[in-house]
């Protein structure tokens, strides 16, 4: 059944529709004004909104525009007792799904529309369940993103996974390199084999060698039995070596030989053993710079990076932030048993503006903290860490620094001008939307640009 919001300043109309649709099994809420409806739309998600056009505080078309901003998937039906060509045109232009005339047949006109939407919801849910199952089977279930950069990575994973080629995944800490490696494994012919991971930066050189290659009894103090290494454990599957850039040059030589020959010699042994392993490596370092400075072997680099994948930092795919935040919220609410239903628009705006030096991992930790601290039913700005509130306010409010003569001061370390300008543009878009209550036409006016230009920039920055 659907979740309906009925909006009309005539209480009798609201009560008639509420009683009728509740009897048919739908969940129904009512609002006697446009402003009351806006508050409900900001607080929770409705499947269908049925709204009168003519109301004292806000007309239905303006409420329609607001609804499409905060909940684009909600079906919006406008009803009116005074039909005109202009209102019908506005209804169509701003995305109304139905336009119904009030009268004796109001319920007869609305019922089939509500029934059709309910059937579509059931189909969408079924399709969503199938997509989630597909993503679970393919190993992409934990990878979330709608940005062009992430869609390109999803396509690349699908294309390269069946191939035996080695992969080098680069990107800042917290961007999800292990998730990519696991997705490649799950989509490959080795998916039934083991997926073994090791953080190369967590072991000293001697211990890393025995972890990777294994050792024989008596090879060193404490080696009381033979033990196979991770290359043996990953035989027939995939070995994911994270933080490969922290491996010593001596270990790099030994790893290169294993990758070249496909044979492993355990520590303390004189015999080599064949291994069939797909190696995937990852690092947050610039390996080309490490090569130039003599800390990483060039031959190993080319052996590992047959197919390179670079994961963008979260600040370069900001359109994914709301999607990720809501996904983490859904998971955490279930695990923590909290009744937090959503994120306030102001809090979401702060999340979108923040730079996320810790990337996706930092965002997940932030949402977990907010859910734990939130006393209400929606995450508010006050539940977010102070560093996020402070940085967002600085970006929105702070002009470029000037010296005493009014000239712009360039930071000593220089600046990425294009990224700086893009961040400023996006911050002003969000600030204008906040001031206008989410109404794009008003936000465009505040920024002294056409509505068409505003839509262009909003799409560009994922706002």
Give the termini distance in whole angstroms. Answer: 31 Å
- Number of contiguous helices: 19
Question: How large a portion of the residues is in β-strands, by DSSP E?
Answer: 5-15%
Walk across the major sheet and give the strand order: 2-1-3-4-5
Residue runs with pLDDT of under 50 for 5 or more positions: none
Mean pLDDT: 85
Please estimate the helix content: 40-55%
C-alpha Rg (nearest Å) = 28 Å
What name goes with the CATH superfamily of the largest domain? P-loop containing nucleotide triphosphate hydrolases
Total domain units: 4
Please tell me about this protein's structure:
The chain is built from 19 helices and 16 strands. With 463 residues, the chain is of the alpha/beta class. The chain folds into 4 domains: 3-129, Rossmann fold (3-Layer(aba) Sandwich); 148-312, P-loop containing nucleotide triphosphate hydrolases (Rossmann fold), CATH 3.40.50.300; 316-398, Orthogonal Bundle (Helicase, Ruva Protein, domain 3), CATH 1.10.8.60; 401-463, Arc Repressor Mutant, subunit A (Orthogonal Bundle), CATH 1.10.10. The strands form 5 sheets. A 5-stranded parallel beta sheet has the order 2-1-3-4-5, sandwiched between helices. It has a 5-stranded parallel beta sheet with strand order 7-10-13-6-14. Strands 8-9 form a two-stranded antiparallel ribbon. A hairpin with an 8-residue loop joins strand 11 (263-264) and strand 12. It starts with a strand and ends with a helix. The relative contact order is 0.08. The model has no long low-confidence stretch (mean pLDDT 85).
